[in-house]
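Justification of resources, computational component.

The compute hours requested in this renewal are based largely on the per-chain cost of generating structure records like the one below. Each record pairs the submitted sequence with a full structure-token output. That output is archived, and it is also reused by downstream analysis tasks.
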Amino acid sequence: MESSSIFILTCQDFLMARCGSMLATQVFFSYSIGMGTMAALGSYNKFKNNFYRDAILFTCFNSGTSFYGGFLIFSVLGFMAKNQGVAVQEVAKSGPGLAFVVYPEAVAQMPLAPVWSALFFFMLILLGLDSEFVGIEGFVTAIVDLFPQHLRRGHRKEMFTAFVCFIWFLIGLCMITEGGMYVFQLFDTYSGSGSVLLLVVICECLAMGWLYGRHRFYDDMKSMLGFRINPWIGWCWCFFAPMFCTFIFIFNLVTYTPLKYGDYVYPGWGQVIGWLLTVSSLTLIPAVMIYKLMKTTGTIKERLNKLIIPDLMEKAKMRMATSVTRKRQKRMAMQKYSPPRYK
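The structure output for this chain reads:
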């Protein structure tokens, strides 16, 4: 069958690093890897929550939904390709144009076109709102956890969330103008995708697998789950994931070409703005590291040893020490007090 070509992938295409780069970017966006949203949402779970089971179920459902969406999209593209007498690859390319130009055109050719068009754009609205919920919650949770004494009083968190939504709304206004698609492509390419996410994920893998230590992380998960997970996951944290991301990142740098949208090549000042967006996303990593090193006392080695210990662990030790001290003081006070004996 002609529609089965969705599964056809030549060895040459599979071995191309550009294909791996596209796959990695899609996986990062689909699972919110490197964006902090999963960590922010997971912070609301109970300590003994089985996150290992949740991660497996989330992966299965997400991949299944992607396959289902692929069948749906390619069935529509195949319908248009058959009507136009061309190959599926010639109907449209991936990107915003597929959702806002090609797909509405295909829906308009179906029976009950107004109904399907209304449902399609309603689905896009729900999809955008759903993505905003996760993105905003991850950002707001991180800021609130940094400044709990200021943002957890009264309705300050709700007010701060409304302020963030308003700022994001103002930023989005420039993307719905006549030249908004060019602004959107600039943000989409440079601000938080592709090489930026790859670098963030590499830093996360190195920090978790080597600085904090995968064995220590395994012990933390065992205290939450009650059992140790498969050890091959630790090998992925330390070796496979950072090596794969590093290879794709180097390939992206070697094969870098100026940004284009259709036949329009972005000018030099547009490329500069794009790289400034990239730098703004990555500068926080070394900036926070330098700030923490300067704020901590001791030699460089002592500072690094202190900084790789999470604040939560230090606070837990302090609480435990305080609790033990209080119990000891209470026991000593009871021993000193001898109640009178009545005969």
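The first strand starts at residue 260 and ends at 261. The two ends are 101 Å apart (CA to CA).
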